[in-house]
Amino acid sequence: MKLRVTLTVLIIFITSTASFNNSSDSKLKPGCSGKGCHIRQGKIFQIKPLDNLQLEVHIKGVKSGGAVGGELLDSQNRIVDFINETSKNPFVLTAPDFGEYTINAGFKNPGLKWDTDQIMLRPTVINIPVPSRIKSDLAIYPNHPNPFSKETVIKFSLPKPAYMELLIFTENGKLVNQISEGWFKAGAYAIRWDGRDQDGLPCPSGIYLCTIKSDDNRIARRMVLAR
Fold first, then answer.
1. Can you give the residue range of the structural domain that contains 54?
2. Residues 212 and 199 in one domain
3. Could you tell me the CA-to-CA distances from 198 to 180, 194, 202, 203 in Å, in that order?
4. Helix, strand or coil, per DSSP, at residue 86
5. Would strands 175-184 and 139-140 be described as parallel, antiparallel, or unpaired?
6. Residue-wise pLDDT tens digits, 10-30
């Protein structure tokens, strides 16, 4: 008889716990589940993009060791990563690919509070070792892989510090995306392009021009996207 009472109390405790997600549920749904769900409160967390498509989420207003959690949703409102509850603050969520994502995150004590924010993950600049001899002129090298289906790496070198734009055009000259711009030091660089346009949509198969503009210089290379 005592065993039955104990089991009943345990079940009630679990189902009444509010959480962003229940890891035992094979059909995850965005948002809070259970009784007493979180109350929306603005600006309670910060997002810091890390390498390898990771996002560091720092919840504010929580005592050290307090329970926090969050979830990462893709552009179709599907959960791609979540942490139901952790004492680590900040914690890390990982995206499966470049694109636009929504983060829901919050804490359970004091009070069940949460907030939501969005972030666009774009290909970032990757510094690579500078060769012993940099070309005297602006140079762009063959991208790799080429052809490509998901992403390709574009390498270029600058002989001196300069303001530079890296643009993607269709073969007919229509601007597809501006994947990098700003001041760069002299050296060699590589930038990933994930085959998406400036709205984050996948580009169709075809021939594209990778163009570098720096000062009065403009050079381009052909790339083949084959999905």
1. 28-121
2. yes
3. 11, 11, 10, 10
4. strand
5. unpaired
6. 222 223 333 454 444 444 555
